[in-house]
């Protein structure tokens, strides 16, 4: 297939996500034929550096030989079997290992296939937990300003990103929102809300340390310490949505670890869990949550299900990702790497049109002071013309590369950032 054919056929048949399709009359659709390491390649051999890990999922690079080999090996055994009433080796191994490495006492794992489904599961589980304990009135959720937890109807009700939410507002159940943790008085506002309305609140859901879709907004782990105390005091479950932050993205295996306090009650994982190879998500819960469902009464059980729950190929890929992270000391290695990268980005950080240059783990972000009406799209195109995939959010440009990225490749991201700031920025 040629680039041109791929684009024409795709635009005729595929409804692409998160896109006004008509915009593709003016705006390129990028056909990809192959991918290896941090690089994508189109049908004519043009290479594009994947600066956003293919929407935050690709952890260790494309075409990773070990993950591919593990999936191939699993193909020869069992690809998928229903998880209701059946089990298999990859799901057992993955569950045991996640429970071992997760923060706190998260001893049980419930599976789905995408992040939004994990959010749905966590919300339903939190509500049902309290109902099983005789507190059916606890049926609302608290989320943070700017929080993003997926776009199915339940998840969207705790998501605060206007562009995803506004069109569907009439479908969404009203929930409660508290200020972004970086704002003065945020923890007091949370305390006030929980103290006044805890009788109707099942859970608080947060993206620990970095809010991704809101534009890589970063905040101090101290908020999580205080939120943990408040949730315990007011009998509200705490859901850590580590769908983006998990598996080392923020510099520790899970972002929650940086709070150095008791763990969350529920934790959602997806995205990097399979290294970006196969769709998989899960919710970990404490023994205490699990025990509230364990009963002779069927209706007290968690009867939620998805067809591909616990898919064997995906679980096998996830086990291999853990193997690699552990064996190769990837996260410790990333720390040294990230320090070097940040040091190399001084010119970008101090560019007159660049604001609030920041970094956590393997995430770098900054705002561009710009008047450009379609900044995000134009910046995307400019980067693409330089062979770099960046996908700005509003005026925020971010780098979230696969961990295999090297110094020379990171320099290409920085150069693209400088080109964007130079072209669209209004220095003040
Ligand atoms: C991406 C994301 C989700 C949703 O995951 P999908 O697989 O896209 O449904 C939920 N929460 C966070 C923090 C995310 O970054």
From TrEMBL:
Keywords: Aminotransferase, Biotin biosynthesis, Cytoplasm, Pyridoxal phosphate, S-adenosyl-L-methionine, Transferase. One of its GO terms (biological process) is biotin biosynthetic process. It is found in: Cytoplasm. Pyridoxal 5'-phosphate binds at residues 115-116, 241, 306-307. It holds the Pfam family Aminotran_3. The record marks 18 as: Participates in the substrate recognition with KAPA and in a stacking interaction with the adenine ring of SAM. One of its GO terms (cellular component) is cytoplasm. Its main location: cytoplasm. The modification N6-(pyridoxal phosphate)lysine is found at residue 271. GO terms for molecular function: adenosylmethionine-8-amino-7-oxononanoate transaminase activity; diaminobutyrate-2-oxoglutarate transaminase activity; pyridoxal phosphate binding. InterPro entries: Aminotrans_3, Aminotrans_3_PPA_site, BioA, PyrdxlP-dep_Trfase, PyrdxlP-dep_Trfase_major, PyrdxlP-dep_Trfase_small. Substrate binds at residues 55, 148, 271, 305, 391. CDD domains: OAT_like. Belongs to the class-III pyridoxal-phosphate-dependent aminotransferase family. BioA subfamily. This is Adenosylmethionine-8-amino-7-oxononanoate aminotransferase. It comes from Usitatibacter rugosus.
